[in-house]
Amino acid sequence: MIELLGFLLFTLAGCLLGVFTGITPGIHVNLISIFLLGAAATFNPYLIAVMIIAMAVTHTFFNFFPSILLGAPEPESALSVLPGHRMLLKGRGVEAIYLTIVGGVGAVFLCVILFPLFLNLIPFLYQYIQSAISLILIVIAFVMIITESHMKGRGIALMVFLLSGILGYILLNSYPLPSNFLLFPAFTGLFGISTLLVSLNRKTEIPEQYMETPKIPGRLALSGILKGLFSGAMVGTLPAIGAAQATVLTQQITRRGDEKEFLVSIGAINTIVALFSLISLYTISRARSGAALAVQNVLASFGLNELLLLVAVALIATGFSVIVMLKLTKKVVRAMQRIDYTKLTVFIILVLVVLVLLFTGPMGIFILFISSAIGLLAPLFGVKRSNLMGVLMVPLIIYYLPI
Q1: Which of 97, 118, 218, 386 is most buried, judging by how many CB atoms fall within 10 Å of its CB?
Q2: In terms of Cα–Cα distance, which of 396, 395, 400, 324 is closest to 166?
């Protein structure tokens, strides 16, 4: 299919693109994949597929830098903002990043070990569960709301869930821009700027960070990875269930208040979704991610040989990501603690506003303002920020209702 040198060069190029998309707010893998599709006429399509998957897997590791350290999330990493940011403010920013690395690496190797099982399990589950998507999402939403600590909190959680859901429904059904562009200002407001504004109001400062390599208990890591794997499996099985919804599910099955286990699980989910999307493409001919859809479009066929090739790419991209992140994390966190956090927060907010304006125009700024206002409700009233995931869940519940 392809020569070894070309394979390695395009894998490395994809990894470097994944670093760029991961650390740059607003630049998503799906956007770059669209441009790479145009190169399929010039280069070997298999090399383009290799580059896309290397980029997608690397992205799942590096997108925790802006979400945890800067509060600038994408849908897949939005819920990492609060526990990751909280650990940063406890001087544990390095540990927060390392936890997501452990989750991602563990998910990749566990997925490879269970590879034969998934090849048979996904078609079976897909056949029997796909008609129950709305019910599954409703149950997840119910659990999210009912697990608030008191009745008033449950009422506020329901309000936050519905308000964000109404916003999501309007955005995904009434505006001509592609949903990826719309979700950028929405998630930036719901989870990013709202978090930054709370920190700014409290005059938060980044304390001195612990730079020692953290010791992560094996039991905690295994538990987080398994829960992430279980939730990530839904992405490969069910249409409309993405990494964001899988993360919400994981938050409900993670021990309450265990932010470390939760970060491991989020790291596992993001990476497992990239792999499961390939397995789903092979087993049920359904692309469950933008990268998998791009691969489906660029390759004339997708058989076992193509699957094994791209799984090998995923393993190489995982090794690259871990090596680079282990070298960069302490340096990045050390640089952050030398910066005035109040000035940094104001700067990040301004940068996010400019990026939203550049990518989505004046309407994006309006969406950013509305979503930031809704995003502030959760921390101000003391309810879980995961209720803001109604922005994706409500539109999907409505779309898949059997009526």
Answers
A1: 97
A2: 395
Contact 376, 194 (CB under 8 A): yes
Nearest partner of 368 among 187, 205, 241, 202, judged by Cα: 187
CB atoms within 10 A of CB 14: 31
Contacts (Cβ under 8 Å, ≥6 apart) of 226: 110
- Decide: 63 and 74 in contact? Cβ < 8 Å: yes
Q: How many CA atoms lie within 13 A of 202 on its CB side?
A: 12
Instruction: For residue 47, give the amino acid letter.
Output: L
Angle at 395 between CA 389 and CA 399, to 5 degrees: 145
CB 335 within 8 A of CB 327: no
Using DSSP, state whether 8 is helix, strand or coil: helix
C-beta of residue 99 within 8 angstroms of C-beta of residue 212: no
Rounded-to-integer distance, Cα 246 and Cα 274, Å:
13
* Listed residue (72, 68, 52) closest to 101, CA to CA: 68
String of DSSP letters for 326-348 = HHHHHHHHHHHTTS-HHHHHHHH
Torsion angle defined by CA atoms of residues 1, 32, 55 and 103, in that order, rounded to the nearest 10 degrees: -140
Quickly count: other Cβ atoms within 10 Å of residue 67's Cβ. 27
If phi > 0 it is left, if psi is from -120 to 50 it is alpha, else beta; for residue 257 that is left
pLDDT in tens, 308-333: 999 999 999 999 999 999 999 998 88
pLDDT digits (tens, 9 = 90+) for 81-123: 567 777 887 888 889 999 999 999 998 988 888 888 888 888 8
Residue 314, number of CB atoms within 10 A of its CB: 24
Amino acid at 129: I
Confirm if 388 and 375 have CB atoms less than 8 A apart: yes
Distances (CA, A) of 141 to 48, 232, 257, 267, 399: 39, 17, 19, 22, 16
In tens, the pLDDT along 266-307 reads 888 888 888 888 888 898 887 767 788 889 889 988 999 999
What are the helix (H) ranges across 149-217? 151-174, 179-187, 194-201
Q: Which residues contact 76 (CB under 8 A, 6 or more apart)?
A: 60, 63, 242, 243, 244, 247, 269, 270, 273
